[in-house]
Amino acid sequence: MKGTALAAVQMVSTVDLEANLRAAERLVAESAGRGAGLVVLPEAFACADPARTLALGAAERDSQGPLRRFLADLAKTHGIWLVGGTIPVSDAGERPRAACLLIDPEGIERARYDKMHLFDVDLPDAQQSYRESARMSPGESIVTADTPFGVLGLAVCYDLRFPEMFRVQFQRGMSVLVLPSAFTRVTGEAHWHVLLRARAIENQCWVVAPNQGGRQTPTRECYGGSVIIDPWGRVLASAATGEAVLLAEADRAVREDLQRRLPVGVHQRLHVPDPGGSVRGEDLQGQAV
Questions:
Q1: Tens of pLDDT along 96-105?
Q2: For residue 253, is it left (φ>0), alpha (ψ between -120 and 50) or beta?
Q3: Which of 111, 196, 198, 221 is deepest in the core (most CB within 10 A)?
Q4: Who contacts 38 (Cβ-Cβ below 8 Å, separation ≥6)?
């Protein structure tokens, strides 16, 4: 592993798959070159075309899928831990799930989280209606994974509004929450940063939240505002719109000192039942590609 910093990569992914992959490759290379050891891409980094979701998902059923190989090659090339935003993955002929993959510096998939909460809402913007469930299936498991950066919690975009999910991850010892997103302009202006800071504060963890940063299609516009936040809720790095690479160091001593002084985990009286889905160090088995 080359670096120790956490990196959030903001993109403006369009319907042009090849151009998006070139942009991701360039921005990940920049992140690694600036000292990142963990790099997080945004949701749907590869393509913003819903009509292509089914075909893309069918090609990604195993680690030999083109997007999964692309991510594995990026991680190996730069010697980093990479969170591959989300890509569509179809299992056993089902509708695709939005899969968030954690890949180690050897190109091995160490964890997979499938987005649980699907974005079915109506908004006062150009698109007006969002129905993610019309083309995607929801995930079923809350996922955490042991990494050199501590216990990583994986979540995606709309999950941010469901705090019980993050409390389970907190109860497992989560120290870094990664949240690849495509938060819309309307909802982002109103809620993005306040929700992210709340998740960092209440769970005493770093939050690495890369968002899509502009107009992806004629009707879909995302807020941008990618951010890295520390366990006290301080914004360590942030972006506006457009492409951006954010970096920040995550010193474990900062979190440990905070938990000694403000031991909310000890004081917690109500616990959220844990449905499973943790990936422990001894369980990290994957296929190098």
A1: 999 999 999 9
A2: alpha
A3: 196
A4: 5, 6, 7, 80, 81, 82, 83, 147, 149, 152, 176, 178, 208
Class (C level, CATH) for 5-263 = alpha beta
The residues, any chain, with a CB within 8 Å of residue 234's CB and separated by 6 or more, are none
Do 201 and 32 form a contact (C-beta atoms < 8 A)?
Answer: no
Q: Dig out the tokens for 135 from the structure.
A: 């083309």
Q: pLDDT tens across 188-238, in order?
A: 999 999 999 999 999 999 999 999 999 999 999 999 999 999 999 999 999
Length of the chain: 289
Three-state DSSP at 250 gives coil
Q: From the CB of residue 9, how many other CB atoms can be counted at a distance below 10 Å?
A: 30
Is 63:72 a contact under the CB 8 Å cutoff? yes
The amino acid occupying position 250 is A
Q: Full-prediction pTM beyond 0.85?
A: yes
State the catalytic residues: 43, 115, 157
**Residue type for position 21:** L
CA 46: distance to chain centroid? 14
CB distance 88 to 60 below 8 Å? yes
- Asked if 258 and 222 touch (Cβ cutoff 8 Å), the reply is no
